[in-house]
Design a protein that fits this description.
Length: 348
């Protein structure tokens, strides 16, 4: 009589009926977790804007209210209530989802010296994060380009494009990567901060996201330099420039561009996902000529982003091909809520 080993098939979901169980039933939760973790780690724009998840439907309604007045109360006068401007914005999901997918062969998986599925799952999550960031970046810049309002209300009109044509220094290189460009960014942010203050945009929850080269130009601004005989200790760069309203993040330059730099109370981030090309395909809300876009400064309420049930994943065992097919998908949408809370920073 043979002594057969009782091999534990720990990936089989025994909650399923007999006959429908497979040895890879439990791959989905692991794969999904890896994708979601990579998405949350890699995404940069999403925490800075008005973001909601929904589980059904297509549209999300956002109310907006603008300034109620006040008056002195006279003795014996009845209070009847005062007028206040109100609006309602509708943010809709895109028509179709973004999808990242791959298929792995059994033999390739077993012979590989690393976890193929884990690496590909991480890449799926990073791709979803990149696409989300790029789309949110387009929405922010397009919100800043809104220059008119509709209806009879007192809401301010949209933000402006801060470039040479508006009286601000242009950026000297395609990536804006010189100290001159860093100084131009400080000047632009000062003017934008003033414009926001004049429109009563709240000072908290503002942010500025720029191209990576421009971020490092800002970070180098005022760094000590050596002229051959003496070290000129001009305080600045990663140590800050108090005379320019800049607070450096810390003295460790190796921490990279995930560390924001405070300029006039607004954190400045860097992103490779600022739109920089002329986008003419896809949904109209993400289209535009962004070839001169250097960054965008905004308040959290400038746009709304909605996502259907976050990142979802699926896996399928293909016995005929002896492989596993895996899919990560995302359905999202967005639009302008308060366009006057977003300002584009661009080259001339």
């Amino acid at each position: 009589m043979a002594n057969n080993a009782n091999t534990l098939r720990f990936l089989t979901n025994q909650a399923l009926a007999t006959g429908s169980q497979t040895p890879t039933d439990l791959l989905l939760p692991v794969f999904g977790g890896e994708v979601i973790a990579a998405f949350e780690e890699a995404n940069q724009f999403l925490p800075l804007v008005n973001y909601k998840q929904i589980t059904e439907g297509k549209d999300v309604k956002y109310p907006a209210v603008w300034k109620i007045g006040s008056e002195y109360h006279e003795a014996g006068t009845e209070l009847l209530g005062m007028d206040v401007d109100t609006k309602e914005y509708t943010i809709s999901l895109d028509d179709r989802p973004l999808v990242a997918h791959f298929e792995v062969d059994d033999i390739d998986t077993s012979m590989a010296h690393f976890d193929i599925r884990n690496e590909l799952a991480l890449e799926c999550g990073r791709e979803m994060a990149r696409q989300m960031d790029r789309k949110v970046g387009c929405l922010l810049v397009n919100a800043a380009r809104v220059t008119a309002d509709t209806g009879t209300n007192s809401f301010p009109i949209g933000g402006n494009d801060y470039a040479t044509a508006d009286g601000f220094s242009d950026f000297s290189a395609a990536n804006g990567n010189t100290e001159r460009d860093g100084a131009a960014l400080v000047e632009a942010m000062a003017s934008i901060s003033q414009a926001m203050d004049e429109k009563d945009v709240p000072a908290n929850e503002r942010a500025c996201v720029v191209r990576v080269g421009l971020y490092y130009a800002l970070r180098r601004l005022g760094l000590p330099y050596y002229d051959g005989s003496v070290v000129n200790a001009a305080a600045g760069g990663i140590w800050g420039r108090s005379d320019l309203g800049i607070k450096g993040p810390n003295a460790n330059a190796t921490q990279g561009y995930q560390v924001p730099i405070d300029v006039f109370g607004t954190p400045v981030y860097a992103s490779n996902h600022i739109p920089t090309t002329n986008i003419t395909t896809g949904p109209a809300k993400y289209q535009g000529d962004f070839t001169k876009t250097m960054g965008v400064m905004f308040h959290k309420s400038a746009i709304g982003v909605v996502q259907m049930a976050g990142i979802t994943t699926e896996t399928m065992r293909d016995v005929r091909r002896q492989s596993d097919f895996m899919v990560a998908k995302m359905l999202m949408g967005g639009g302008a809520l308060r366009p006057y809370c977003a300002y584009e920073i661009s080259a001339a």
